[in-house]
Design a protein that fits this description.
Elements (H helix, E strand, L loop, with lengths): L2 E2 L5 E5 H6 L1 H7 L6 E6 L2 E7 L1 H9 L4 H13 L9 H14 L1
Parallel strand pairs: 2-3
Antiparallel strand pairs: 1-2, 3-4
Length: 100
């Protein structure tokens, strides 16, 4: 299986292994702390995280466009928009716009 470091939940995985073990890897990515670095020919090409952890990153992100992606992802995950109050989202977007 993928190489797992002892300090972090980041695992290094090659494209072949990803292809061969995709169902298991997708199951692991449901965890909130699991991350994979996908390598091609030994060079990092992508970081894989689960949809819900990504949503949390986006909603705590630094750009308004990231919050929009977060809302889209939330809809895809089941439309549970009540997890983030609209007023909170609007305040965050206003703050981020002022910082830009």
């Amino acid at each position: 299986m993928a190489e797992k470091t002892t300090e972090t939940p980041v695992r290094i995985i090659g494209s072949r292994e990803l292809h061969q073990n995709l169902p298991g890897i997708l199951k692991e990515l449901e965890g909130t702390k699991v991350r994979y670095v996908l390598t091609v020919h030994g060079k990092p090409r992508a970081v894989l995280i689960g949809a819900e952890p990504y949503l949390n990153l986006i909603l705590n992100g630094t750009r308004a466009s990231e919050a929009v992606v977060g809302l889209q992802l939330s809809a895809l995950l089941g439309g549970e928009f009540d997890t983030v109050a609209l007023d909170d989202l609007e305040r965050a977007l206003e703050t981020k716009d002022r910082e830009s």
